[in-house]
Structures are given as C-alpha cells and as structure tokens.
Amino acid sequence: MITTTKKSLKVGKYVGTAHVDTVIGNYKKERWVHNSERIGKEDSLSAWYSVEELEEFIAKIKDHGADGIKLYFAAYSADYAEKPEYANRQTVVLVATKHNETPAGAANRDIYIHTEEGSQILAYNAGSLCPPNCGTHWPPPTGEEGVGGIGITIVDRGEKGMTII
Q1: 4 pLDDT tier (thresholds 50, 70, 90)
Q2: What φ, ψ does residue 36 adopt, rounded to 5°?
Q3: Which of 46, 56, 101, 108 could form an S-S bond across to 97 if both were Cys, CB 3.0 to 4.6 Å?
Q4: C-alpha–C-alpha distance, residues 117 and 97, integer Å
C-alpha cells in the first residue's frame, strides 16, 4: 500500500492581543492618518464579513480547486456609485488561489473561472467598512465590552493636534 502525505500550506499563526494592538497601532500611525488626510475623510480601518458568507466563499473556491485566499489591499474609486460612502476608502478583496511549486519557488496563483461574461477572477469584496459603518459611535467609546480596546491609538498629528483612533 502506498501512502501519500499532503504537505501543509499553513503560513499564518495565532497571535495575542499585544501583537494585534501593535500592528493596528503601527498601521494607524504610519498609513491611516496620511490616507485620511489625502482623501479628506476618515479612511476605513476594517472590512467585516459574516461567517456565513466566508463559508460560502470558501466552499465555492474549493469547488474550483482553490487551496488558499489572497487578501489584496485595495481602494474604491472616487466616483464609486454603488456605495458612495465607500468612495476613496480602502478595502480588501479576497481572491481564490491555487498553490503551485515551481522551479523558481512557490507561487499562489489567482484562480479564474469561466462565466457567461467570459473568464473572471474568483473573488469576493464589498464587506462592511468601518468607517463609515462602525455602529453608533466613531471612534468607539472605551469601556464597553468588546469595544474600544484593541487598536485604540493616540496619534500626534503635529500642528493638527492629537487624534484618538
């Protein structure tokens, strides 16, 4: 009997609160403040998707031979008509991928499928962005359960003052 072992493609790891706070804080100070100033409004800090829709996307991409997902950082155009409140804001696009080992090294190639419109990338987007969809308060109030802890950052904006995000 021949036994084959499937090589794990795992590349990420579970991280703790301190790590999350640090990387979100770094992002806010190094990218978010500048993005927000450039577009003239608070840029998005997150994109939310339900477990249900993520499970549906994962099931669909598996049906097409995918074994991974790339999260592309992206931004809506200034004239994004579908949701004008998302105009200029950043987002993430989830793209189905297939891992391939090549002589040049590993590659995670985007998957395209055939549709009535022709060949299309197998991707998912249009999550709920925060801002603008952050609930009733932005920035979120501190002290509420599950709100106001992770990622709270004080940013020194020089002559423009301090911002708590």
Answers
A1: low
A2: -60, -45
A3: 108
A4: 21
Question: Using one digit for the tens of pLDDT, what is the confidence trace for 64-79?
Answer: 999 999 999 999 999 9
CA atoms of 80 and 39, how far apart (whole Å): 14
Which pair of structure tokens corresponds to residue 140? 């979120």
| Amino acid at site 127 | G
The string of pLDDT tens digits covering residues 99-129 is 988 888 888 999 999 999 999 999 999 999 9
Rg (CA), the chain: 19
Q: How far is CA 73 from CA 11, 34, 45, 93, 158, in A?
A: 18, 16, 12, 7, 28
- Record the tokens describing residue 40, joined without a space: 């003239």
